[in-house]
């Protein structure tokens, strides 16, 4: 359809290799973070610098000091402000963050401070949105604060399960904020998600595992907690999967 060129794919990556693959695979934008295993935290300045040298598409930096919830202490908020300065200094094109209050609302005061710190960069409110008490009210709140985008799985474990809510949010937004579905989006469900929601952007990681190149291996030591990823497996954004997703997505409109 006429809208097909407007479909945009944001790919979340935590390595230079994945960033390069994302661009080659047809991504419109990169969300850069470290540690995708825990849902993504702030990337190092070194990672951001090198990614910016390797890709031309916009790079949005995740600003999230730790995994877990989105209720932050004063010192964690100081870290977030310092990280936004770092991201701007290292060429980030946007920032991605979310801060909540104990009762599941947006902490508007802190978010306004972080938006001010981010200017003139684009700001995205991330999936902290999926942890709020009342998504309809929160969406209006984000619009009035000046967030350009909100990333959401429709307050469910995946975007497919949250599809009815994503559709409602897209309708409510009326172009005032870009609602970006994300969470378990693959080449198999992207068409259903875009058709069912009316969204024009989507967020994915489209990673495949490849075996580590290590020949010597010590199987009796693990670097993380026991439920972490296998030590000798590397997850990287997959060019073929991304290209497939883009072509399937463009057929859906």
UniProtKB/TrEMBL annotation:
**Record GO terms (molecular function):** copper ion binding
Q: Organism's domain of life?
A: Eukaryota
- Matching Pfam families: CutC
Q: Which Gene3D superfamilies match?
A: Copper homeostasis (CutC) domain
| Compartments reported by the entry | Cytoplasm; Nucleus
Q: What is its main location?
A: cytoplasm
- Keyword set, alphabetical order: Copper, Cytoplasm, Metal-binding, Nucleus
Name a single GO cellular component: cytoplasm
Q: Does the keyword NAD apply?
A: no
Query: Where do the TM regions start and end?
Result: none
| Assembly behavior | Homotetramer.
Per the entry, what this protein does is: May play a role in copper homeostasis. Can bind one Cu(1+) per subunit.
UniProt-listed HAMAP family: CutC
UniProt family annotation: Belongs to the CutC family.
- Annotated PANTHER family: COPPER HOMEOSTASIS PROTEIN CUTC, COPPER HOMEOSTASIS PROTEIN CUTC HOMOLOG
Record protein name field: Copper homeostasis protein cutC homolog
Source organism of the structure: Scyliorhinus torazame (Cloudy catshark)
């Amino acid at each position: 359809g006429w809208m097909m060129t407007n479909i945009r794919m944001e790919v979340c990556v935590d390595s230079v290799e994945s960033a390069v693959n994302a661009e080659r695979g047809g991504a419109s934008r990169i969300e850069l973070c470290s540690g995708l295993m825990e849902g993504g935290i702030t990337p190092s300045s070194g990672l951001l610098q090198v990614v910016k040298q390797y890709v031309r598409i916009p790079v949005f930096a995740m600003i999230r000091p730790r995994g877990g919830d989105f209720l932050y202490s004063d010192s964690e908020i100081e870290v977030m402000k310092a990280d936004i300065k770092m991201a701007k200094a290292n060429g980030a094109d946007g920032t991605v963050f979310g801060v909540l209050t104990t009762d599941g609302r947006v902490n508007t005061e802190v978010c306004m401070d972080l938006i001010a710190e981010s200017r003139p960069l684009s700001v995205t409110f991330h999936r902290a949105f999926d942890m709020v008490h009342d998504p309809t009210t929160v969406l209006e709140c984000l619009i009035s604060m000046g967030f350009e985008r909100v990333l959401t799985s429709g307050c469910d474990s995946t975007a497919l399960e949250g599809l009815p809510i994503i559709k409602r949010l897209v309708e409510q937004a009326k172009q005032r904020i870009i609602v970006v579905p994300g969470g378990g989006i693959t080449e198999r469900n992207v068409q259903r998600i875009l058709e069912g929601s009316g969204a024009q952007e989507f967020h994915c990681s489209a990673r495949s595992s490849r075996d580590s190149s290590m020949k010597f291996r010590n199987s009796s030591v693990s670097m993380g907690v026991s439920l972490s990823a296998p030590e000798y497996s590397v997850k990287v954004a997959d060019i073929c999967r991304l290209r497939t997703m883009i072509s399937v997505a463009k057929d859906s409109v």
